[in-house]
Amino acid sequence: MTVSIRLQIKTLYKDLSLKEQAIADYILENPSKVSHSSISDLSNELGIADSTFFQFTKKLGYNGFKDFKMAMLMQENDFSAISIHENIQKSDNELTMAQKVFDSNMTTLTDTKNLLKEEDLKIAAAMINQSKRLFFFGVGGSEIVATDAYHKFLRSPITVFHSSDYHIQLMEASLLTPDDCGIFISHTGKSRETIELAQVAKNNGSKIIVITSHAASPLAKLGDVVFISISEETEFRSEALASRIAQLSIMDSLYVILMFINRDKAQQSIAKIRRSISKIKEP
């Protein structure tokens, strides 16, 4: 599936210059006008040189403005389908507020799903499956995602590790080997702690899977495989919180794929855990 211009802009937005962000904002806010205007008209409107707009289209992966404009025309439905999710007003009742939160989450999941690539999923699943040990790394809000993943993957035949303490995570990263795999989670991809963890692991030759919302981030550049989660920032919920549901879904996907690869062993692991947990449940 071809990634839409809207999603391309979202994944790169935080790493664009101020001038490039102004171009991106204009495209997102005026898709129809952009797809039916000349590069000179658009550049004059934005007060920039034609070459600046041309280079922006190249940054998105197009051969030039004509290629970009053709893609815009073909993706008009993608832009026209955009609605302002979770734009909660004071006049909204509680049900409307909740529905807007759900709408926003569904958009986050749909956008993230559209960025998934079969080859990336295959490579990541193989890396995990072939590893002796699997470690989960994340700090702050990302640590919550790492803990949830650890809780899930404990049911798999793979030996997994995770600590909520950053210093212990750093110690674990220092002990990784080429036979191990680490999954590193950071919404911005710019968390100094997580970058340091990934760099230590990379220096040891460990396999690295990154989950972030920003494709051009320093953390993403360290990954052997990178998964991008997409989300919108709103007044009372940060982009990082919104991306969490997408990151959890990426983890769920990798978990399910791994369990199907190891179907027999996976069923044995799950059975052991269920037997153990059933002993403490009320009859």
UniProtKB/TrEMBL annotation:
Pfam family, one: HTH_6
Record carries keyword DNA-binding: yes
Coiled coil regions in record: none
Keyword Transcription recorded: yes
Gene3D superfamilies found in the cross-reference section: Glucose-6-phosphate isomerase like protein, domain 1 (3.40.50.10490), Winged helix-like DNA-binding domain superfamily/Winged helix DNA-binding domain (1.10.10.10)
Alphabetical UniProt keywords: DNA-binding, Transcription, Transcription regulation
Annotated InterPro entries: Homeodomain-like_sf (IPR009057), HTH_RpiR (IPR000281), RpiR-like (IPR047640), RpiR-like_SIS (IPR035472), SIS_dom (IPR001347), SIS_dom_sf (IPR046348), WH-like_DNA-bd_sf (IPR036388)
SIS domain sequence ranges: 123-266
Residue span, HTH rpiR-type domain: 3-79
Domain of life, source organism: Bacteria
Protein name stated in the entry: MurR/RpiR family transcriptional regulator
Organism: Enterococcus entomosocium
